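A.,

Following up on our hallway conversation. Structure tokens first:
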């Protein structure tokens, strides 16, 4: 029997809309708090939200934005944040490609996390994968200099594609060089899906790429 979805938010509702983002910019989503810094971190596709919750708890003065395409997951996460009394997260329902590519300003994000985005294993669906050159170029535009894009996948074929896309982006530098990716990153918070995949004995692929400083290349815009 399916459990009824609960719509009430037991505290402050930290959901915001794409319109809020378009009108006020990402910094504007946090104007209602004086204690949250201007260091803004984005997670795309937070799923059940375990990772984002833990990240937000571990850095209460950092501003976190979670983007999820699923209405139900955004609602459940809004309830979790309210239950936990966490105030440094804002939630946006939408596609990461649109939020990042069309609504997020330049050089406003210190970090972007994309954990276990859907691998779309069938060849004919491969174009739906989130990590593709156009999306990564938009992430780079949104990152501050020295900002970091963190990506994780359990899927070996997708890992190869992620490696190709990220290593081809000239404004990014692989923090894990000479490795293409790492199967373990000490201290990295586990995500909900990661826990499931580890129980299934699947191997992990973690990528950290940093946006180059202007002084390094002279060409980063
Ligand atoms: C495989 S789950 C991983 C969830 C979480 N990151 C984790 O590791 O536990 C992928 C999540 O991304 C969301 N998603 C899929 N496509 C998306 C998109 N284009 N933009 C934002 N979220 C998306 C799905 O609704 C789902 O919650």
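Then the amino acids I'd put at each of the 221 positions:
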């Amino acid at each position: 029997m399916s459990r009824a979805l609960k719509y009430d938010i037991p505290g402050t509702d930290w959901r915001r809309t794409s319109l809020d983002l378009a009108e006020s910019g990402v910094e504007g989503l946090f104007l209602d708090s004086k204690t949250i810094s201007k260091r803004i971190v984005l997670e795309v596709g937070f799923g059940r939200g375990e990772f984002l919750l833990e990240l937000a708890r571990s850095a209460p003065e950092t501003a976190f934005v979670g983007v999820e395409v699923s209405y139900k997951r955004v609602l459940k996460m809004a309830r979790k944040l309210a239950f936990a009394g966490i105030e440094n997260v804002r939630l946006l329902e939408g596609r990461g490609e649109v939020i990042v590519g069309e609504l997020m300003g330049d050089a406003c994000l210190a970090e972007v996390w994309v954990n276990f985005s859907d691998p779309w294993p069938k060849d004919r669906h491969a174009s739906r994968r989130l990590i593709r050159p156009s999306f990564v170029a938009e992430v780079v535009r949104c990152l501050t200099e020295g900002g970091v894009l963190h990506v994780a996948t359990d899927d070996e074929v997708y890992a190869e594609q992620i490696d190709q896309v990220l290593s081809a982006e000239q404004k990014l530098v692989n923090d894990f060089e000479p490795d293409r990716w790492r199967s373990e990153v000490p201290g990295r918070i586990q995500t909900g899906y990661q826990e499931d995949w580890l129980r299934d004995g699947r191997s992990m692929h973690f990528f950290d790429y940093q946006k180059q400083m202007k002084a390094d290349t002279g060409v980063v815009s």
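Residues 166 and 172 are 7 Å apart (CA to CA). Curious whether your intuition agrees with the design.

B.
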